[in-house]
Amino acid sequence: MSRKAIGHHFFIIDKKFILHFDSEVYRKFYSIIDFDSFEIIKSNGSTFHYFKDKNHVYLDSYMNTFTILLDADPTNFKILDFENGKATSNSNAYLYDEKLTHDFSDYIELSDYYQSFGNEVYFGYNKLIPDVDIQTFEALHPKEVKIVAKDKNHVYFRDKIVPEADAKSFQFLEACFTDEYYQEQDHTFYAKDKNQAYYINTISKDFKVIKTKNIDKFHFKVIDNLGYAYDDTYQYLFGKRKKI
C-alpha cells in the first residue's frame, strides 16, 4: 500500500493509519478523517500541528488534544499567528481549539493576557471576567506577573475574583522585581493588602493567603539565590512558613 510523508517526514499516513515519529496517532478519528485529502497545514514537528482534509480542519497542540475546529472551513482557514494559536475561518476567530465570541480585531489589548470588548474584560480572549469595572481595571506588573489585575472593587487572578483581597490596598512587594536573581523569580511573588499577605505562583496557579500578624513589616529579600518573605515571627520560602 502506498504511503506519503507529510510535514517534513514528521508524519507518515496511508489509508489505514497515521504515524508520528513511528507512533500511531489519532486512531479515534480514523472514521472521520478523509485520508486521500488529509494534509498538514503547519507544524512545529513535535507538539503543535494544524491539519485539514476536504471536510474539516484539525488541531493537535500542547494546549489541547487532537480535535476538529468547530465550524472551520478547510477552503478558507487561515493561520494568523502560529506561535500563539490564532487562526480564522468563516469570520470566526480561533484561539487554539477555542472558537471565540468576537474577532481578534474587535478586542482592545490591555496586556498580554487581558482584553476588553465594550464594557467586558476577558482573560485569554475567551474567559469573561465577572463584575469588572472597566474604567478602573488594570493589569498589575503586566511584564512580570502578567495574570493578576484589579479594579476599584476586586483583585483578579487569571479570570477569577480573589475574594479575600482588598483591592484598594493590594500591592506586590516591589523587592520581588529586583534585578538580583532568585530561584523561580519569573513566576513566584509576594503581595499584601491592609489585612494580610499573599504568596502567588503563576505556574502552579497558587494564590495563597498568609495570615501574618505583622502586615506592616512584611517584606521580601534575596539570600543565596532564594527569595524569602519575612515578618517579625516567620520566614516564608515558596509560601511555606518557618519560625525565625
What does this structure look like?
It is a single chain. It contains no helices and 28 strands. The chain is mostly beta strands. The strands form 7 sheets. It has a 4-stranded antiparallel β-sheet with strand order 1-2-3-4, with no helix packed on it. It starts with a strand and ends with a strand. The mean pLDDT is 94.
Short description:
The protein is mostly beta strands.
> How much strand content do the residues show?
35-45%
Could you spell the SSE succession in H and E letters? EEEEEEEEEEEEEEEEEEEEEEEEEEEE
Backbone shape:
elongated
What's the N-to-C terminus distance?
A: 72 Å
Low-pLDDT residue intervals, each spanning 5 or more residues: none
Q: Count of helices? A: 0
On the 0 to 100 scale, the average pLDDT is: 94
> In what order do the strands lie side by side in the largest sheet?
1-2-3-4
User: Helicity range of the residues?
Assistant: under 10%
Sheet with the most strands, sense and barrel status: 4 strands, antiparallel
Radius of gyration over all CA atoms, rounded: 23 Å
SS-derived structural category: mainly beta
* Number of DSSP strand runs: 28
Task: Describe the secondary structure blueprint for this structure.
Blueprint: E1 4-6, E2 11-13, E3 18-20, E4 23-24, E5 39-43, E6 48-52, E7 57-61, E8 64-68, E9 78-81, E10 86-89, E11 92-95, E12 98-99, E13 108-109, E14 114-117, E15 120-123, E16 127-128, E17 138-139, E18 148-150, E19 155-157, E20 160-161, E21 171-172, E22 188-192, E23 197-201, E24 206-210, E25 219-223, E26 226-230, E27 234-237, E28 240-243
Antiparallel strand pairs: 1-2, 2-3, 3-4, 5-6, 6-7, 7-8, 9-10, 10-11, 11-12, 13-14, 14-15, 15-16, 17-18, 18-19, 19-20, 21-22, 22-23, 23-24, 25-26, 26-27, 27-28
